[in-house]
């Protein structure tokens, strides 16, 4: 997998990504809804529905950002949700949301990333990742560490952008991400580079069958993917053996 970074500096990808999200945190939710026309909310709901049969009590939300996935997981009636992220700026807004709905006793947001998180072995029922695996510095290392934390039979659910393959959605996607996304990002965010990094990182991400292969390689079982909105995104599900 080719490495694409937000700022193309000598700093690590992890630090560049953290800096980027700190920069755009104040506009992240607004731009997410604007750029996706709100579709991303339905995608997350579908993820929550897919893992509901497992009735997870201990949930880890990786790359939690402003905590939308963590808050959505409250519908599963869990005992505890831990959200980790490398951007304190994003989590600041997430904590405000959590406080507003009085969910602080269930959801806790803390600094961390998938590669180095030291949560105990075999302690998590379900792991969710929303639009975060593209930003891992070492993809397989992060996936293997998450597998370690899952209980046997536990499930991982990853929501990630993908590249549409079929006409006319392929052409529309290319136009939208080449012109519309960077333009809106520049207008509403103080970091225009963040919204050119987005399509670049999607382009090099090993999506669909390729990512299922990586999940299998990293020790997961029953790995599968479900394409969303004509290939704009995909949900990946896998279990721990």
Kindly summarize this structure in a few lines.
With 241 residues, this protein is α/β, with parallel strands linked by helices.
List keywords for this structure.
241 residues; 8 helices; 44% helix; globular
Task: Explain what the structure shows.
Helix content is 44%, strand content 22%. Helix 1 packs across helix 4. A seven-stranded mixed β-sheet has the order 3-2-1-4-5-7-6, with helices on both faces. The longest helix has 24 residues, at 13-36. It has 241 residues and is α/β, with parallel strands linked by helices. The chain has helices spanning 13-36, 39-51, 68-72, 88-100, 139-149, 169-188, 194-204, 209-217; strands spanning 58-62, 80-85, 107-111, 124-130, 150-161, 220-228, 233-240. It contains eight helices and seven strands, in the order H-H-E-H-E-H-E-E-H-E-H-H-H-E-E.
Strand element count: 7
Strand content is 15-25%
Class per helix and strand makeup: alpha/beta
Mean pLDDT: 95
The amount of helix comes to: 40-55%
Order of helices and strands: HHEHEHEEHEHHHEE
Q: Given the structure, what is the number of helices?
A: 8
Distance between the termini: 26 Å
Fold topology:
Layout: H1 13-36, H2 39-51, E1 58-62, H3 68-72, E2 80-85, H4 88-100, E3 107-111, E4 124-130, H5 139-149, E5 150-161, H6 169-188, H7 194-204, H8 209-217, E6 220-228, E7 233-240
Parallel strand pairs: 1-2, 1-4, 2-3, 4-5
Antiparallel strand pairs: 5-7, 6-7
